[in-house]
Amino acid sequence: MGPLDKYILKDDALEATENGFQLKFQTHWYRALPLSCMDFNLKIDGKEIDKNDLKIKANGNEYRYDELLELDKEWLFVLDRGILEVEQPIEKGKTYDIEFKYDLYIPYILVGPQANPLLASSVVHKNLICQ
Amino acid sequence: MSNIKLATSLFSFAYEWNSGKYSLEDVIAETRKRDLGTGLEIIGFQSLRGFPYISYETEKEVKNLLDKYEFEPVALDANIDVGIKRHAKMSIDETVEYIKPQILAAQKLGFPILRCQTTAPAEVYEKLVPFAEKANVIMGIELHTPYSVDHPSVIKMAEMFGQMQTHVLGFIPDMGTCMRAIPDALLTSFKTSGVTDEMIAITKEIWHKDMPTTAKFGELAQTLIPMGATPPQIGRLNMAFSMNGRQPIEAWAEIMPYVVHIHGKFYGFDENGDEPSIDYPTIFKVFNEGGYNGYISSEYEGSAFTDEFDAFDQVEKQHQLFKRIVNDL
């Protein structure tokens, strides 16, 4: 959505793990937000990952996707990276087409008749070499 | 003659900071090297890991840096995250509890003012008065567009200030509330989403009309949809209304006794070093005549829409402009 989008996925963002892969992401807002204010959509080589297959890690803690809304005390600092983990094996050294939609619901900017948090949505689409 | 003092908010350097290439010391050292004022403003959730809880190490680091680079701590910025659970808003009492540790953070780090936001109503701040008095921290409520002095919430807040008779409540006017034009740099940035020059011209025309922001959203959509504008394009152009307020500068006089700090929002400069969208000479005149003798912090908004300029260069330009204005007062 803005200039800070360029920091979301760095060149080393995609990494093979024992059971699959992980994607390391940084925020596109200027201040820390907790996981409760975030939502994700991930496509790898055009295929969308079922959200229920996503594990979310921050500060060394691990959560299921359906826990996100409750995580208002798990903060992701602006210079730290969160991790999405997926149990789907990929190959180290190979290039993958990654489309990552990173939604932030800004908790101090309320908009519309219902005064809901402003949605700041960014999509990063790039080829990443699996580390 | 003016007693208004110059400061810089580290918000200005969001693009540089998020790159991870700067330590907190790097940013503060560069701010000093460029002579960007005598005061410093920090956003807790931007600059301090673990905020609002301040470890002994963080306390020592921040105080050492302020000391080493000779900055007066001016304001620590809190965030009033009432929508943090997304599906349910915080209650009044939950909001009160959410702000308390942020007041303590300001106290611990030696900042006299905690910047607060209008996402909490007057009732919340009224309840916090005894706590803030004990901590000796002023809650400065930021008046960010659309919260101009005639906004019902602001009127209510000012009435409460009057009743409470305390030194820990005040306002922080943001100069994005009283603009004279939509910044060209902002409008140009919308072109990446396919917005045309004609759509921009219409947006500018509607912005200048005397009607509520919500009515402007409506008129913009009604005019642009037949021209083939898409919802994302209209959404971008709506930002021009939601980010840029049109309150007359002179209206700040109505709340002048409550002003504890000012946010010197800015977007860019013309070839003469003037800010075409914000009339700073008149702003300084109005606050100076009102007897204001606190700080104005530079707040560069660039990270929201452009990476074309170095933020340190931009803040330096604003300080040159401010120094020129102060000399002429």
From TrEMBL, chain A:
Pfam families: CGDB
Entry-linked InterPro entries: CGDB (IPR045959)
Keyword Lyase part of the UniProt annotation: yes
Segments forming domain C-glycoside deglycosidase beta subunit: 6-108
GO molecular function, one term: lyase activity
Keyword terms: Carbohydrate metabolism, Lyase
Protein family per UniProt: Belongs to the C-glycoside deglycosidase beta subunit family.
Identification of the protein by name: C-deglycosylation enzyme beta subunit
Automatic annotation (TrEMBL), chain B:
Segments crossing the lipid bilayer: none
Alphabetical list of SUPFAM superfamilies matching this protein: Xylose isomerase-like
GO molecular function, one term: isomerase activity
Record key words, sorted: Isomerase
Lineage: superkingdom: Bacteria
Start and end residues of each Xylose isomerase-like TIM barrel domain: 45-311
InterPro entries referenced in this protein's UniProt entry, alphabetically: Xyl_isomerase-like_sf (IPR036237), Xyl_isomerase-like_TIM-brl (IPR013022)
Cell cycle in keyword set: no
Keyword set includes Repeat: no
Name of protein: Sugar phosphate isomerase/epimerase
